[in-house]
Amino acid sequence: MSALAPSPLAIVDAEPLPRQEEVLTDAALAFVAELHRQFTPRRDELLARRAERRAEIARTSTLDFLPETAAVREDDSWKVAPAPAALNDRRVEITGPTDRKMTINALNSGAKVWLADFEDASAPTWENVVLGQLNLTDAYERRIDFTDERTGKSYALKGADELATVVMRPRGWHLDERHLQVDGKAVPGALVDFGLYFFHNAKRLIELGKGPYLYLPKTESYLEARLWNDIFVFAQDYVGIPQGTVRATVLIETITAAYQMEEILYELRDHASGLNAGRWDYLFSIVKNFRDGGSKFVLPDRNLVTMTAPFMRAYTELLVRTCHKRGAHAIGGMAAFIPSRKDAEVNKVAFEKVKNDKDREANDGFDGSWVAHPDLVPIAMKSFDAVLGDKPNQKDRLREDVSVAPGDLIAIDSLDAKPTYDGLVNAVQVGIRYIEAWLRGLGAVAIFNLMEDAATAEISRSQIWQWINAGVVFENGETATADLARKVAAEELAAIREEIGDEAFASGKWQQAHDLLLQVSLDADYADFLTLPAYEQLR
């Protein structure tokens, strides 16, 4: 362990929280400050490179595999490090935020892995950031059991051998943590989330037979993966654990990363455990990057873009082939359905869709997949059990039959579907309802029987923006305009007030959410991430 100097980190504008001193120790803050000093300048450079690359896409309306890294792709000799035992079987993974109830339910869910989320399923209030860390440590120490005062229901962890393996997801590179600053500069949220988690739990997890396992979100290039790898090397030396103890699964949820999958695995090869097909953020990234590329890049309603769309098939099949060629796990996308307690018919239809989705992924060669609700774990498990049997994964299926050309990944116009007026209404509805909950500190929200997170709101507002700027004409003859979006949003706001009553409406953040959705949907200057202006309003 390095000698400790006083931490230059200042806690700014944050109300004290119960037991925060257990998370925000001098030693942990000194570690986060050192991460900030060593790595934030490179983070800043890489964010600037994102803007340069986006400008190039705007100019050319195309993407390709990188000529400068062809040697990495053509070298068949390298593989990622073998998976540790706790991550070898990942056939079903459940996702969710790190509040106390979710922590227990996810660990008990029967899934092989729990994605403990500080990113899209968590609004980054100071309370969520700090107490989420505390909940994970409490879970590892088996002191998280509690009784809900409101309902009287008790929550308790099952036996250690029945619990899911935790894979923690920090915030993306673009988000800062305003409550932790060095010399007036906010520390990147990714370094706060990773730093606190790693510092407190790396050795504890090794003692439990596991390790500090991570999901890396919103990666846009192999250089961003290289930055993470350098952070892991530094962190492992700092606390004195063996190199290669950290394992990271990278979400391929940006269109630029889809062209750099092998390079991303190569950069992280001593610390990589797989790639994941993050479908909603991926669609958001396509719209964001090709938003001015003309009609051939206009996406239809998000619910009409299924995983069988040709460009989505190209993406997922390339991911499986890439992972298995390099000895990594390929993890499939999210089943977001939330079962209804009132409508058995809704459940029947939805469960069938989930089953078909997971059957397809298992048969395509994926080693596991995501669900958003414990009731979906058995459905997904059955799909993967049918293909895997007793095998922990199917990394031996190399999918050498797959061949994806650069244009296949962006062949949006291969879809017959078109944007609809109902699609616009749904985008407004989901956008307002999600943002309102986010501004109250909730990152994972059930809306219309689907578990929505920040990626959903991003695709909603991006599609509104794209359809207006492309002058889309809907099937009812109406043209997508800013005025039409305002009219639909006003109608939705009135419908919500009618639905929940004046008192609940007044105590929520509905007008604020309405205004913010219109801001990021209608501004000529497209915001890179909805969560950037939203974070300014998060209190």
UniProtKB/TrEMBL annotation:
Q: Per the UniProt record, which EC number(s) apply here?
A: 2.3.3.9
Q: Which UniProt keywords apply?
A: Glyoxylate bypass, Transferase, Tricarboxylic acid cycle
List the Pfam families hit by this protein, alphabetically: MS_C, MS_N, MS_TIM-barrel
Question: What InterPro entries would the database entry show?
Answer: Malate_synth_C_sf, Malate_synth_sf, Malate_synthA, Malate_synthase_CS, Malate_synthase_TIM, MS_C, MS_N, MS_N_TIM-barrel_dom
Pathway given for this chain reads: Carbohydrate metabolism; glyoxylate cycle; (S)-malate from isocitrate: step 2/2
Q: Which NCBIfam families match?
A: malate_syn_A (TIGR01344)
* Protein name per the record: Malate synthase
What organism is the protein native to? Streptomyces venezuelae
